[in-house]
């Protein structure tokens, strides 16, 4: 009887793990590789802005895996950076303004697990 109970528990855990139901995955950007600014420094950034805060946003956007291209960490909020920020905003249900403000900083530090919105070609 005890063996059957353990077999049931093990089978349920294996099935849950296969379905990703065992524990929620936290997608949090590791601040170590992106240490151009303090995580508490979150200025509003717009197209054409330059500096270490832009480089921090570019670095954090590169945490996203999969299809989106990695940005050059040049510290310039250029068209490539703008396009990626807009895509990240859409993935999180934010208006795709391209402006990096508090809500966008929040999602850069805590990216979604998946985005079902295709990256622009």
Automatic annotation (TrEMBL):
Statement: the UniProt record of this protein carries the keyword Signal: yes
Keywords assigned: Signal
SUPFAM superfamilies the record matches: PGBD-like
InterPro entries named in the record: PGBD-like_sf (IPR036365), PGBDSf (IPR036366)
Signal peptide as annotated in the record: 1-29
Protein name, as recorded: Peptidoglycan binding-like domain-containing protein
Stored Gene3D superfamilies: PGBD-like superfamily/PGBD (1.10.101.10)
Keyword hit for Signal: yes
High-level lineage: Bacteria, Bacillati, Actinomycetota, Actinomycetes, Kitasatosporales
């Amino acid at each position: 009887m005890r063996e059957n109970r353990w077999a049931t528990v093990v089978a349920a855990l294996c099935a849950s793990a296969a379905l990703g139901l065992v524990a929620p995955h936290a997608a949090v950007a590791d601040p170590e590789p992106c240490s151009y600014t303090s995580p508490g420094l979150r200025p509003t950034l717009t197209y054409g802005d330059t500096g270490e805060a832009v480089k921090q946003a570019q670095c954090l956007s590169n945490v996203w895996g999969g299809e989106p291209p990695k940005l050059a960490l040049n510290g310039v909020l250029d068209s490539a950076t703008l396009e990626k920020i807009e895509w990240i905003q859409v993935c999180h249900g934010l208006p795709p303004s391209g402006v990096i403000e508090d809500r966008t900083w929040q999602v850069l530090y805590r990216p979604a697990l998946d985005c079902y919105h295709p990256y622009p070609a």
